[in-house]
Amino acid sequence: MKSSMLKIYKQLPQTIALTIACTLLSVISLAQNVVSGKVTNFKTGLPLQGVTVTVKGTKVSSQSGTDGTYRITVPANSKILSFSYVSYINKEIVINGSVLDVVLAESVQDLTDIVVVAYGTRKKSDLTGAVTSVSAKDFQKGNINSSEQLLQGKVAGLQITSGGGSAGGGSRIRIRGGASLNASNDPLIVVDGIPVESNGISGNDNLLNSINPNDIESMSVLKDASATALYGSRASNGVIIITTKKGTKGKVKFNYNSQVNVGTVNKNVKVLNGDEVRAIINADAAKSGINTYKNLLGKANTDWQKLIYQDAIGWDNNLSVSGALAGVLPFRVSAGYLTQEGVLKTDKFNRLTTALNLSPKLFKNHLSVNINLKGSQTKNHYADGGAVGSAASFDPTQSVNATNVYGGYFEWLQSDGKPIGTNGGSVQPNPLSLLYLRNNNSVVNRFIGNIQLDYKLHFFPDLHVMVNYGMDNAFGKGDDIRDPKLVTQVFSSTKGRHDHYAQFKNNSIIETSLFYEKNIKAIKTKVDVLAGHTYQDFTSYNYNYAGYSSNGTEMPGAPTFATDKPQNRLESYLGRMNLTVNDKYLITASLRRDASSKFAKENRVGYFPSVAAAWKLKDELFKNSSKISDLKLRLGWGITGQQDGIGNYNYLAVYSQSSNAGAQYQFGNNYYSFSRPQAYDANLKWETTTTKNIGLDFGFFNNRLSGSVDVYQKDTKDLLSTVPVAAGGNFNSELTTNVGSMVNKGIEVTINTVPVKSNNITWDLGFNVTYNNSKITKLVGDKILNFQGVSTSSVNDTKVGRHFVGYSPYFFYVAKQVYDQNTGKPIEGLYEDLNRDGKIDDKDLYFYKKPAPDMLFGINTQVAYKSFTLGLSAHGVIGSYAYNSYDATNGLLRSMKNPLNFIGNVSKDYLNTSFSNARYISDYYIQNSSYLRLDNINLGYNVGKVFKNSASLRIAASVQNVFVITKFTGMDPENASDDGLNGTIYPRPRVYSLGFNLDF
Amino acid sequence: MNNRLKSYLLIITTILIVSSCSKKLDLYPQNDLTSAIQYATPAGYKSVLAKVYGTLSATGNTGPAGSADITGGLDEGKQVPFIRNFFNAQELPTDEAVVAWNDETIKDFHNFNWTSADFYLKGWYARPIYNITLINEYLRECTDSKLSDRGITGAAATDIKKSVAEVRFLRAFNYWVMLDLFGNSTFITEADKIGSDLPRQIKRADLFNYIETELKAIENELAVARSNEYGRVDQAAAWSLLARLYLNAKVYTGTTKYNEAITYASKVIGAGYGLNPSYKKLFMADNDKATDEIIFAINCDGVKTTGYGNTSFFVHCAAGDDFAEYGVSGGWYGYRATSAFVNLFSDKTGSTDKRAMFTTSRFGTSPSQLVITDIADFNSGPHVKKYVNIRSDGAPVSDRDGVFADIDFPVFRLSEMYLIYAEAVVRGGTGGSQATALSYINKIRERAYGTTSLGQVNLSDLTLQFMLDERGRELYWEGHRRTDLIRYGLLTSSTYLWPWKGGVASGSAVNDKFNLYAIPSSNLIANSNLEQNAGY
After folding, report:
1. Which of A368, A676, A785 is the best residue to mutate to test the B interface, defined by the most B CB atoms within 10 Å of its own CB?
2. Contact assignment for B31 to A786 by CB distance below 8 Å
């Protein structure tokens, strides 16, 4: 696009001459026609400015004006006008009069025609790997605070699970299931060529929320190894490449958008009300004759959950300016400010973002410079999340307030007026006191910047050299202040508490690459080759501070080390070759060599190759078919690695020191701090995943039905896993080491259709379905008789899951509950004697259901009628099971009649079980957690030109998290943990938003 | 030409950038040290020695919790602290303790219902073996050649050599715990390197011989009794462990060694110890002053040696609303004794035999108040107030928040040596006399009653049953009861039933396999050299 415009500039003198000549000719020749008309958008009916109108077979061309009208002089004998416009389908029209109005439709793939891939871009039609790109216009709509949520339900094989309802909270991202057991299953995130920190930092658990979703142009999801292998050792879990918006040539354009939203809580945890608690306690007292608990009952009916939540208001404002300075320096600059309340009272998230992009070309276009600078400041006021649990389990018969020294909040006290609980604390603080007597504020400043210099060699223009230097800095700090009146503080020796925390993360990258491109016309072959070197450093600076009382006295247990500096480095060489033969056969081969500081010298280097091929069947077999518009077969194979999620120095034999003053031993009159050898595995190495992928891209009926099918298999070996080791074999009872293998198999189907398409109305309907199956194929020690796998999934230290050979990870391993034949109620503590040995013990546990879903699906649809659009998007999973750990830990009489002499509230599930004590091992708590969530309904109206035609306005309204259909009885079936333990009681809000977008 | 030059310059720059980045992949942590640096100085050695001792008191490198020694889903406060494990293993399956909590399988121990899958057993097995692994590593770094290579000489080298005998004692002590609880044990010495072969298993009788040989080998290398700095072991600790080992030799090996028990108990008794005048003070926050009687104690401190499983556990677990009387800021409403045990004291109020430390003022000691009707109800049954985080001199304790205790845990006390001597004599051991045995018992009782006019016994009273009961009265809640009941053949049999033994209110006999704990199944998986104990 840019280069073609440059060509036009170069040819300007000729063009002018030609135009003059044509004009002269038109005066002379009566055989010429003047054709005029208006070009409009097919969907919106709005005029399109800048459409190139060419007389086919000539160099005569014109452009449409601001009102969409054009005028062109057509030479005699010319019969066809062609209309072209970026990201619209070109149209050729036979001239049959002097007025020709034209409607252009946006091409189905439009912006995704060019897809950002590892170290470059490719035409979508030339892709050989499994890559899905989503551009801004297809992003999830509504109130999106964290960038990954833009992709919710949009990409087959991609599962995004938001962590919960807190403002600015993060998500779990999985591409084609997890490939690892204990190492990270998070994909690598690359922003404008910089692999960024996607983990949290002190003061912000979710660094992805520091990138403004409004600045994002497109996101590419790289799924198979042939697409990701260039990222080598960090690519096993897939890669998400985020590309931000750039400056464009042309006149300066402004965009302002603003959105206001309200989040409401529409579901609470089901607990008992005051009357129900009174009834149970009174009945229990009548039965036992002991009035201990009856005497504790209050007279109120307090809905604690209602009291801690609020309607959360959010306001998001973004302004961007893009264009070219002095006509030659393309730039884009943007600023955004978001202020977002959480539904939990006092929870608040603010974000200020700025971004600058400069992309000048120098030395006669031989040097392309691309500068991206992104700065953000996020501020969190963390509400004490403990209030959520406390509200669900606080006695509803008590009133909120009381006259006491605890800030006027009712608290459970002992006879001496001190709170019930140990360590000067309280076992169950009043939920409102937690919200209002604790103040935890953080500020995180983040800077992501890079400069790319792309230099095309003067003497050898087929070759260009690119240098990319980038950094990702984040500095987080905060203060957590507990009021002296807080129930946990009143009787502490220090009276109030002040903790300061801070962390700095600095990741930097320097990359040098050579690109060679050659079109060998003689053999109809295009070759492009990349060779590169990259060096990355990941350094954290952790600051440790002592705690202080509110009057400034240092608390005991001060840290030994004021700082720590975990660091790792990665040095890599990479190469890739793309071959395109006859524009029908595409072959890509790549190799990356990684050397990581996380492993010993002997195991440090890994090689990650990939090969992929594609065959454009359409061009080969159906060249003239009008029904088949696209058909391409893709085959890919590659090996990727994994080294994230393990420590930086796990291979080294080192001694760790006491981290604070509370870990010393007395000899004589002196205290000596500890030094301890750490468990280590000197032979630690990469986890490697071999991926095979077969894909078919198709399009029928002028792409009104298009999509793709991918079948994949991922074999992971040398799984990095933390497993039990023989006692006495190392300096711990478990060790992170390479054990076992796992296989993931799946099918992904994406289908996009346009069922209705007429002048006024268009209906787009797309859906994607993924079937994925993960199975552990080998684990350490699996040859030993009676081996019961590695226990996982702790519910208060009772393990209810296992990693076991032949099963999906975290498979539930529980006891089969026996039910009362008459009442249907589970019989407390009675399980089936599955092995019929007359005893009910751990040998009767059985494998029952798995947390990972069989299928994921997403549905997106949009109807455009004249200037209105109405869209829906939904996603869900099928075949997943969850352990309702809230019911298991809270649906018990023991939780109501707390042994520490106070009354608590319980889950309503207690009415179904009447369990007195915790029965974690029962399969009763495992429920089908398949669900369908309607994520979003959005309505847009294109007002069109406003302010005397100087600006165009679009208004949009949306509702998010509209409903969930599920059998799961807990708060929310969507669960951000791999182990399937779902004790979430923090509600995800329903959010109503209203916004406008103004281009001028 | 100029452009060509520019291009070459660019390529050269590129190559420079690439090559300058290489060879920077050897990174080391900022705060952790390689062993070469750790052991470069005597102070580095002392810090590891502090850890070796500290594993008995603290659970990790952060107090009270954090950077745990033993991970793997085990709760740092509940399943891996040495003292708490030792207490649970030795007291929960006996008449001395029941627990109200519902934590995991904790009730299975009084109920004699534990299995090899038990979660607590994992920690009980892991802790002593972890401690031994650490000791072996320390020993590998203490060889003469390593010391001289590092230029450590003179007094510093002498102190390190002295510590070698101490850590060998601690290794023997940890192995004794394995011997007593599990019988057969994982067996590793300084000859077994980290991360190489799977550790072997040693049979109970062979482990007995190893412990005996080790203790005898270091007997004369350890500091003279009562001469070492506080907190570090001396000869008397090795003699005490030998005496205890010999008293139980029949259980461990099938052969009695009562003569040897008398010999080694006598060595300790003759080393200059005496009974502290106050029984109560032995379990108070300033019991570090009771070096007259305490032979070896595990040190705890409310600020500097903190954890949820050292003596802080004793004071909290036994306390309820009356936590203030225990010198702490809150109770855990958990452990108390059974009436069978409390009934060993004819006067349960503590006004005559002052060792009867039950919270009588609050809960009373009438038969109905002693009976546990509901195990889960902390208020049902007699509360034990033996360990209190209060100083006898009235000064404030270290932790102003009253969470962590200063009380040191007495592993060996002189009175135990008196009791070993007397029981060995009663059991027919030679080398001692009945008269001396009687005098030792009466010394203990004199201290207990605060007078010789009450509580004194005669030779005819010195029956085996009396010895067991007296051990109960003197040593309860110090981690002896299970070993004692096994020695008397009473732990699993129907001869002696106490409330809720085997999970039945009136008590019931249980399978004899429960005389040993099961090797945790996770250990069998991780190490194919291990064999399960009979019956599991």
Report:
1. A676
2. no
The DSSP result for B497-511, as a single string, is: --TTGGG-TT-----
Residue B346 — pLDDT band, cuts 50, 70, 90?
A: very high
- Residue length of chain B: 536
For residues A102-131, one letter each, b for 16 or more C-beta atoms within 10 angstroms of the residue's C-beta and e for the rest, the string is bebbbbbbbbbebbbbbbeebebbbbbbbb
Residues 6+ apart with CB under 8 A from A273: A301, A303, A396
Contact A260, A315 (CB under 8 A): yes
Q: Which of A221, A393, A156, A391 is nearest to A907 (CA)?
A: A393
Mean pLDDT, 10 residues at a time, over chain A (1000 residues)?
40 44 42 80 74 84 83 84 79 83 68 78 87 87 81 85 72 82 86 82 78 90 90 90 85 91 92 94 89 91 95 94 85 94 93 93 87 93 90 94 91 82 71 93 94 88 90 94 88 84 94 92 92 94 91 83 93 94 93 94 93 92 87 94 86 93 94 95 91 94 92 92 86 87 94 90 92 89 58 84 91 95 93 89 89 93 90 93 94 87 92 91 96 92 85 91 94 86 89 92
The distance from CA B240 to its chain's CA centroid, rounded to whole angstroms, is 14
**How does DSSP classify residue A900?**
T
| Alpha carbon distance A816, A823 (integer Å) | 18
Task: Kindly state the tokens that stand for B103.
Answer: 């934590």
pLDDT confidence of residue A17: 45
pTM: 0.82
Instruction: Say yes or no for a CB contact (<8 Å) between B64 and A662.
Output: yes
What ipTM did this prediction achieve? 0.95
Q: Sheet holding A654-657: strands in order across?
A: A675-677, A654-657, B33-34
A824 touches chain B (CB under 8 A): no
Beta carbons of B190 and A728 less than 8 angstroms apart: no
**Is the Cβ of A417 closer than 8 Å to some Cβ of chain B?**
no
Residues on chain B touching A673 (C-beta within 8 angstroms): 47, 50
User: Which among B62, B101, B513, B521 is the top mutation candidate for probing chain A, defined by the most A β-carbons within 10 Å of its own β-carbon?
Assistant: B62
In eight-state DSSP terms, residue A843 is G
Other beta carbons within 10 Å of A589: 18
User: Who has greater pLDDT, B400 or B443?
Assistant: B443
Average confidence (pLDDT) over B187-193: 95
CB A20: neighbour CB atoms within 10 A? 10
Q: Taking Cα atoms as reference points, which of B313, B325, B314, B402 lies closest to residue B361?
A: B325
What pLDDT does A647 receive? 86
Residue B224, Cβ density class (10 Å: 0-12 exposed, 13-18 middle, ≥19 buried): exposed
Residues of chain A with Cβ-Cβ distance to B117 below 8 Å are: 788, 841-842
Mutate to test the interface with A, among B7, B125, B166, B294 (most CBs of A within 10 A): B7
Instruction: Indicate if the pLDDT at residue B16 is higher than 70.
Output: no
Q: Which of B67, B70, B403 sits opposite A423 (nearest CB)?
A: B403
Measured between CA atoms, how close is B117 to chain A, in angstroms?
7
Contacts with A388 (C-beta within 8 Å, 6 or more apart), sequence order: A308, A344, A431, A985, A986
Chain B hits for A416, Cβ within 8 Å: 324
Task: Please say whether the beta carbons of A568 and A613 come within 8 A.
Answer: no
Q: Which residue of B has its CA nearest to A677?
A: B134
Q: Beta-strand (E) ranges in A397-496?
A: 438-456, 463-482
Handedness of CA B119, B205, A726, B68 (dihedral sign): positive
* CB distance A348 to A396 below 8 Å: no
| B193–chain A nearest CA distance, Å | 8
